């Protein structure tokens, strides 16, 4: 018997239905092995059946057995779900996936709201983030918020690739130690040339333009430090 089992190979392979499934599974707070097994079975369409003969697996009404090493190999194909950042995934919102034509101030506030959601689990912060980005939403369920959060993590991963000096790596010990207000003030100080009256202009400027300018400023600063050391 030949069974053709297909599962997504990465975040970019997920359609909107599968993304919703993944968000629900992540919310279950399973350990690594459990999440890999459940996600593999769910996304492939396999059902697990308990019988007198032990565990059996059903796919398209066909029952079969998997050896432990086979099951482990299949589950390992889902490790991207845990180990890789969800960059360029399907967009569950009406917002441009790469935040084109979004103001820097709106982006920064939305990111702060998404961070609040990550810490509190309260969907209202996701609703506020979407509203700031131009998408009104009267009701935000916990499940919908989880889907949007996955998408936002992908947006942040995309921005990190383009502006690596602005966004420190996840192992940076100083990350998230400052309040959003302090971070914003520090960013504005780098760009306003000691003219605080220009802060509003910076916040109203295109997000990508500001992030590119910040990336360039940080690059110049790092090069200056290297020259001083020499």
Tell me about this structure.
The chain has 230 residues and is mainly α. It has helices at 16-27, 32-44, 68-76, 80-83, 104-120, 124-132, 142-162, 180-191, 199-204, 207-229, and strands spanning 47-51, 54-59, 62-64. It has a three-stranded antiparallel beta sheet with strand order 1-2-3, with no helix packed on it. A hairpin with a 2-residue loop joins β2 and β3. The model has no long low-confidence stretch (mean pLDDT 89).
Report the end-to-end length measured between terminal Cα atoms: 69 Å
Globally, the shape reads elongated
* Mean pLDDT across every amino acid position: 89
What portion of residues is helical?
A: 40-55%
What is the strand tally? 3
Q: Strand-and-helix sequence, N→C?
A: HHEEEHHHHHHHH
Structural class: mainly alpha
In spatial order, strands of the major sheet run 1-2-3
Give the percentage of residues in beta strands. Answer: 5-15%
Could you describe the largest sheet, including whether it forms a barrel? 3 strands, antiparallel
Helix count, DSSP H or I runs of 4 or more residues: 10
Gyration radius, rounded: 22 Å
Low-confidence stretches: none
Which features would summarize this protein structure in a list?
single chain; about 230 residues; mainly alpha
Summary of the model, kept short:
It is built from ten helices and three strands; from the N terminus they run H-H-E-E-E-H-H-H-H-H-H-H-H. With 230 residues, it is mainly alpha-helical.
Indicate the topology.
Elements: H1 16-27, H2 32-44, E1 47-51, E2 54-59, E3 62-64, H3 68-76, H4 80-83, H5 104-120, H6 124-132, H7 142-162, H8 180-191, H9 199-204, H10 207-229
Antiparallel strand pairs: 1-2, 2-3
Helix pairs in contact: 1-2, 1-7, 2-3, 5-6, 5-10
